[in-house]
Amino acid sequence: MIDILVVITPKDFERLLPLYPRLMDNLDFGNLLFVGAEGIEKTINSSSDALKRVGYLNENSLLAFDDVHQLMKQKLTNILAGRELPRGITGWYYQQFLKMQYSLSCENEYYMVWDGDTIPCKKVKMFNDETGKPYFDLKHEYHPEYFETMGVILPGFNKVIGQSFISEHMLIKTEYMRELIADIESNSEIIGEKFWEKIINAIPEDKIQDSSFSEFETYGTFVALKHSSAYKLREWHSFRQAGNFFSVETITDRDFNWLSKDFDAISFEKGHTVREDNKNLFDNPYYQDKLTPKQMLQAAQLEYKDGYKEVWGEENLEANYISGSYNAGDDITLEDRLKYLNKETYKDYEKLGDLLISKNSNQAFLCYENAEYLCDDSEEKNRISKKKENLLHNGNISVNKAAIIVLSYNNTYVLQRCIESILNNCNPDSYTLIVFDNGSKDGTEKWLAKWGEMQDEAIVVLNDENLGFSGGNNAACQYVPDGHDPFFLNNDTRVPANALFWMRMALYEADDIGGVGAIQNYADADKNADVSFDRPELYVEYGAKNNVPMDNSCEEQSKICGFAMLLRKRAYELTGGFDENFNPGYVEDDDLSLNVRSHGYRLMVCHNAFIYHVGSQSFARRDDQHELFTKHRELIVKKWGFDSTIYAAMSPNEYSFIKRLAEKGYAKESKFSVVHIGCGCGNMLGHIHFLYPNAILAGVEENEIVRRYAISCIDVYGKIDELPMDLEKYDVIAEGLG
């Protein structure tokens, strides 16, 4: 009897538990040994008597996860820049190292490793009856990164056969694996002592996330070159996409008997569930009687645009040429936070902090925090860190972290890019990420569940029903930790470098600032950056160039846009949150803005905080957009006494009026007077104040209720005759702009 190692996580073990008796029956030539964290042993002890016959081995008794994780973090220091490394990135390599490490304690001639999400369809034999030789089972796929790493750890080694050794299992000769490990550890050109240290150090830091090592390909190639006659080759077929067509809970003996005609095994990969259009297809007895499993899968694969495809014989051998991580579209890729920044950028923020110490210690602290984050030099980073800590202890600092609340609903790719931008461009010490899925039905919720399992730095909440924008954000706020300012961020955004930093700087400019909004490429005129690019990444690059120190970066407005809305914790608490009468969406951000204003706080638009916004992803396919907008405008009027979409917004005519000021020769430093008759809450005058800080501005608004919500930097009067000077004495008079 040989040991059969099944390396698996506790959650996957519990998920696949109903099928493991079949694993035991079909791998009856060895002792089944599950390798993983402690949760597996607890599940075994509480399960059926049959499963209690299997063994358990604590993964850390073979190789400590924390040791591998620590080295991975050191390897990715520059890319992580203080961010937490997702455990899933380490885990992918760690499971492979465990399979190799076992050879050093194995007492048998052979041991076998078997992927925990794969179930054999029939009894498996791993030795040839005639020759007694063990089998190498082969499939068809190719990852160039595997062989690039192999060529570094084993100089001169490369791919030797057309097929792949990756077949979800492998029978390993203990002596050969020990020999392989010894050869890797003897490579003095690579830093490290242990084989796993050398493998990690052999991979360039920008390739780590591309799944750049395979224990199967490495061992198989090693044996093929050094012990070419030791194994007998055999073609192997496994149904890797089975989880898209069969459910773990409902697959039957009949299904397995039918599948066994063409498949040796099937896999239930994490995150795969039966789609609606795949139900009652592969598990339908009618189709099973008419077609073979191979015919069914070949027909289904005609619809695959990408991903793994099962190949028979010599057909389409390049079908599974995959560069990068296997599920590249599902990955969050960590990049250098200085991708679009100068390495000396940190000095600007340190100097700004020095200037602010005597004026605003909260802002000074934020500057030192950002300088520390952006600094690549370890000595300089430590120096700035000490300066920050001294200020924290001596400066009466009262700064909250931001709780970035991303409400997701369908569209996995857009959400992935949003999360990716946060992880890449925001200082991890400055925020906590909360992703609340609002009842997605397109697989986004499955991806989020998988991603949430793989990392520890975010709070992921999966909600079964769609609570709407207001309801979803309110529900998400229940998970905000103490000491955090809520930052509501649309899932169809990408956050460039320093955007969050400058929004926090604006929020802590003064105690009476209750909320800050960003500028974007998709907005009304007063919150719009007048730029247009062909690709989203160019907007991110633009943002890095825009989000820099400005003499006058904040513009007071009567409302801010909910696509990126950072609120002071106390101000948000006073409002009681979003009004759920505005579900599923539209004008709820106007309502919340007015609520914040009603408690005496000011609102700011931060012009050096550009955030890319795709726009209207959740509502683009709704047929009732106009009806919703009209209904919610009526709600606003009923609640606040005026229409915020008119009185608290800047019209196209007003924006054109502002543009004509420059055409008349007025410059930023010009001193001139403007009066706006029918100014509403003063948004146009607020924008003029931002562009022309020396201008003398006044507004006239007859509606008393509207005047209550006028911005504080402008004097607004009820009648023309209340103005501080005669109307005709103003240099510029604006009236009837709508």
From TrEMBL:
Gene3D superfamilies: Spore Coat Polysaccharide Biosynthesis Protein SpsA, Chain A (3.90.550.10). The keyword Acyltransferase does not apply. Keywords: Transferase. InterPro entries: DUF6492, Nucleotide-diphossugar_trans, SAM-dependent_MTases_sf. Pfam families: DUF6492, Glyco_tranf_2_3. GO terms for molecular function: transferase activity. SUPFAM superfamilies: Nucleotide-diphospho-sugar transferases, S-adenosyl-L-methionine-dependent methyltransferases. The keyword Transferase applies. This is Glycosyltransferase, GT2 family. It comes from Butyrivibrio proteoclasticus.
